[in-house]
Amino acid sequence: MTDRSPFARAGQYLALLCYLVFLAFPLLWLVSTAFKSPQELGSVDAEWLPRHPSLDSFAAAFEQQPLVRSALNSLVVASCAAALSVAVAVPAAYVMVRYRSVVGRAATGWILVSQMFPFVLVIIPLFLVLKSFHLVNSLSGLILVYVVWNLPFALWMLQGYVRAVPASLEEAAAIDGCGRLRTLRSVVLPLLTPGVVATVMFSFVTAWNEFFFALVLLKSPEKQTMSVILTHFIGAEGAADLGPLAAAALMATLPSLLFFALLQRRLVSGVLSGAVKG
């Protein structure tokens, strides 16, 4: 098998570089806009980088909207939704893999079908159900919605990791006197750590960035999440207060980026392991 030519390898690196620039450009432009002074934002000739970096947009953003409170709301909702989704998905995925039945196969099919439902199709019945339980305009109701919405993906993802755990390990634990719950906690769960980390990551980011459900279900300003607060920087006629909007959007983006950076090694290894072994 011959080695690839230097031109082919250089072309691959060039294509990868172009792709990275394409992905990074919106974030770089957001950072540049957030640090521009009001004079530069109002200039007809847009500059790539701020000539005189300023924090005026950040100060204006905090003055105009309750960013700290909305960020705390988003953090509570995303953290609780991610934790509950994984807490339900891990034992459910274990049961679906280890106890195969018609119900399990039907549940797997339903998981795939449910991902094709658009938000608009379910929002009205969902709103009516939450209203009957007095969960509209509450963070608890929004957390419940995110848990239900994240569960299909979490179950689908974790099933591959459960299949990768040898059944012989569980049989050995049973011979040593471990029950099902103890086997799941002491034997299976430690081996599922990469998959759990990856699922937590995706569930957290999905809940943090979600907009439509939060917009419809949360009406009180003090309960709104970060994604909804960002729309308040846009006027009734569609005119955006560009500087504060960019500053607020940057602050809304940083938590998910930092969370991803902290867990990227576990995330990449977990996704590859689940894809190959599942």
TrEMBL record:
SUPFAM superfamilies: MetI-like
Domain spans labelled ABC transmembrane type-1: 71-263
Predominant subcellular localization, coarse grouping: membrane
Record localization: Cell membrane
Top-level taxon in the UniProt lineage: Bacteria
Topology within the bilayer: Multi-pass membrane protein
Keyword Membrane: yes
Cited InterPro entries: BP-dep_ABC_trans_perm, MetI-like, MetI-like_sf
GO terms, biological process: transmembrane transport
Alphabetized CDD domains for the sequence: TM_PBP2
UniProt GO cellular component terms: plasma membrane
Protein's UniProt keywords contain Ion transport: no
Family: Belongs to the binding-protein-dependent transport system permease family.
Protein name: Sugar ABC transporter permease
